[in-house]
Amino acid sequence: MPVAALVAAVALAAPSPLGEGARQVWVPTPSVPPKAVVVFAHGFGDTSEPNHPWLDHLLARGDAVVWPRYQATLAESRNETVVNFREGLRLAFAYPELRRLPVVAVGYSWGAKLVFHYGVNADRWGLPRPRAILSMFPGSLERGLPPRGPLPDTTRVLLLAGARDDPVAAGAYWKWLRPHPAALKSYRVLPGLTHDAPMHTDAAAQRTFWAPLDALIDRYT
């Protein structure tokens, strides 16, 4: 469905956030009972409210979205963003109706790392495990290494890198995923794409990024 039609079908008016400051979280929900929850981890420095046609698309599909703010300013350290992300998720999943639903996590740039922290630590954090993770274009390794510990063996992972971005960082995550079951992980280096590609909204971006997420949700929830 074209972006304009999605926006017309589901006008995303972000609800009031839960929590305060960097630990805020938004939980936009569809007009029908949701069939799955998508945890969406944005890129570093995006402190705005959730407002992107991709979210409209997810709502139109019937998925609820959990959008942790995780930073109020650029002053937070990388470790603080992980804690803030965790606390935002805890606020969102305190609602029983969300905890009963299957979860898929998607992250871009710094968020591409945060979703792995969530996947590794879900049990310890008292949160539902994501059934699948889409990690897109993780940023430089100078800004954070993969989390300690393995992902649960049941978690499906799709790792995407841009050939004109930083495939070295994504490759390090692929190396970290090496012990993960081969049948449950895949890695794609996409030719010609720069770091901002996952946040585009044109037809190419929808085919390259939105469609794989849809497929993960449909298959694993």
Count up the domains.
1
Q: Termini separation (Å)?
A: 22 Å
Strand order of the largest sheet: 1-3-2-4-5-6-7
Total number of β-strand segments? 7
Low-confidence sequence ranges: 1-13
CATH topology: Rossmann fold
**What structural category do the secondary elements indicate?**
alpha/beta
Kindly estimate the percentage of residues that lie in beta strands according to DSSP: 15-25%
CATH architecture: 3-Layer(aba) Sandwich
Largest sheet: 7 strands, mixed
- What is the level 1 CATH name? Alpha Beta
What is the rounded Rg? Answer: 16 Å
| Gross geometry | globular
CATH homologous superfamily identity? Alpha/Beta hydrolase fold, catalytic domain
Number of helices: 7
